[in-house]
Amino acid sequence: MVEGGNTSKPDKTEFGECWKTTWKTPYIMRLALSAGIGGLLFGYDTGVISGALLYIREDFGQVDRNTWLQELIVSMAVAGAICGAAIGGWISDKFGRKKSILLADGLFAAGALVMAFAPAPWMIILGRVFVGLGVGMASMTSPLYISEASPARIRGALVSTNGLLITGGQFLSYLINLAFTKTRWTWRWMLGIAAVPAFVQLVLMLSLPESPRWLYRQNKVEEARSILEKIFPANEADDEMNALKLSVEAEKADEHAIGDNLIQKLKGALSNVVVRRGLYAGITVQVAQQFSGINTVMYYSPTIVQFAGFASNQTALALSLITSGLNAIGSIISMALVDRYGRRRLMLVSMAGIVLCLVSLSIIFLKAASHAPKISQFDINFAPNGTCPSYISAPKPSSWNCMSCLKAGCGFCSNAYSPGTCMELTTKQRDSCRGQHRTWYKDGCPSEFGFLAVVFLGLYILSYSPGMGTVPWIVNSEIYPLRYRGIGGGLAAVSNWISNLIVSLTFLSLTKGLGSAGTFFLFAGFCIVGFSFIYRLVPETKGLQIEEVEKMLETGYKPKLLRGKPNDRAQFANGMFAKTRNDKTLLVLNTILLCAVPPNQTSVTKQAMGSSSSKPVDINSVKQSGKGV
């Protein structure tokens, strides 16, 4: 998945149990799928703009000429999602999960219709903000509703349907983009049709109940019980009610302990060394996920394909469909590998693959630029007023090729890989070129290396999706102490959205300033930095209980290559303490060894001596009291 809220990772056996349970009680699947449409909307919005942007540029000349305007159209949905995610949690807690989802549907549908009927680019931007608000709220509330309305034994499997629907929505968006390429209103249909699933979810949610957990917290105990009786067999409903009571009481106790408002929670979280170390890991993987460049591919995939020399919008969309399909396949692969090989290893391997693919793409685009077709000096098909002004005034026009023409802000008209004409970038010249049965290039030059670029784009997705695509969300669901999980996961999610905004808002400007090769090489550099931070800061959490993760972070995590050798006397004594707690004779030896170490190197813990506390013990007090001797 490219973006979204925390989701639980299902155990392998949960899928079989999920099938059995939902077959007996279809109402559970109805709840999950109805709420999961929010994930479908999320994925659809991520993918649809990539194709729609191609046709928006054709209809609005100012958008085609201004890179920053294209970036604004794409990234305003991300900006709206940040705000939606920020207020979505408060709305769902204050007014309920169901009402929050209904509001998200209303915003999404309104935004889709505003974009479909937009008379000018600023209206498209406004519609993107509305859609983003809906996406942000849905990303927080839909998984939460599914989780709270699902039996615990199949919760992971049901929540994972939300993630699958996100990638499914992305794939669907590319199919719909391709389907509307031949229609009259192209991008208006692409963006406007998103109102249909939003309306469907709104109707379905009106007939569904509120989350039983939220109802119980609002002291609506009987309403909560009536919903649980629809979800669970009669002999289990009472047990679930008791479990819900204990869970809510424990949650309220934790809230009382860490504070009732956001400022108190933040202070408590940041003053806790375990939470801080968890945040180092959690925020690192979320920022690395976005700066691997994934959303440049999801938001601008057809544009990147055109950079590779495939000028046709239909061809670009068809090839982009492959990348979206590979992303969905990668999510399924992740489910099979993450519990077998671990979170940390999967992310490191994923990042290594991403770096190799990005460097390869950089080399391919460099080769394509150096082998671009030449400008024909004598093209009788076009009058001089059709040529590019910069080309006419160039001191050495004979040295120009297609790439020189595009960098000068002009268009290149050619038959495949043969020399062509550098023409002024206007609709009239474009139509004139196509009237001669030639291809009009304005984003990338025709190249024999173009196919390789698409291949490595696919390999990039396959490297990203099973590792960096899904694992950062899993790590953030496991890395924080239970009482700080909400605030920790929220801070990490905000870092993900902000990084997403930065990347989507600057990608086209980077390609204009650095070129395609330079931009992909820059992202490869970000990934190398991300790899080193993941290696240093992110521990393995596979198979560990919450308490075990907390203990590991309390002592501080270091990867094997940075731990050093335990060769000093204090470390040796600590090891002896841990291994010989109950042996009085060796305990005497341990104390003698400790007494021989200078005071600034002699800090051991009560835990090493068998105590449950982790406060350090002053070795001088041990000497004076003679304990253990």
UniProtKB/TrEMBL annotation:
The residues that cross the membrane are 31-56, 68-88, 100-118, 124-146, 158-180, 186-208, 346-366, 449-475, 487-508, 520-538
Specify residue ranges for compositional bias: Polar residues.
Answer: 605-615
Q: Does the keyword Iron-sulfur apply?
A: no
Task: Specify one Pfam family.
Answer: Sugar_tr
Entries under InterPro entries matching the protein: MFS_dom, MFS_sugar_transport-like, MFS_trans_sf, Myo-inositol_Transporter, Sugar/inositol_transpt, Sugar_transporter_CS
Domain called Major facilitator superfamily (MFS) profile: residue spans: 31-542
UniProt membrane topology term: Multi-pass membrane protein
Localization annotation: Membrane
UniProt keyword annotations, A-Z: Membrane, Transmembrane, Transmembrane helix, Transport
Segments carrying the region annotation (Disordered) are 605-629
Q: Which family does it belong to?
A: Belongs to the major facilitator superfamily. Sugar transporter (TC 2.A.1.1) family.
PANTHER family given for it?
A: INOSITOL TRANSPORTER 4-LIKE, PROTON MYO-INOSITOL COTRANSPORTER
Q: What is this protein called?
A: Major facilitator superfamily (MFS) profile domain-containing protein
Q: Which organism is it from?
A: Hibiscus sabdariffa (roselle)
Q: What are the top taxonomic ranks of the organism? A: Eukaryota, Viridiplantae, Streptophyta, Embryophyta, Tracheophyta
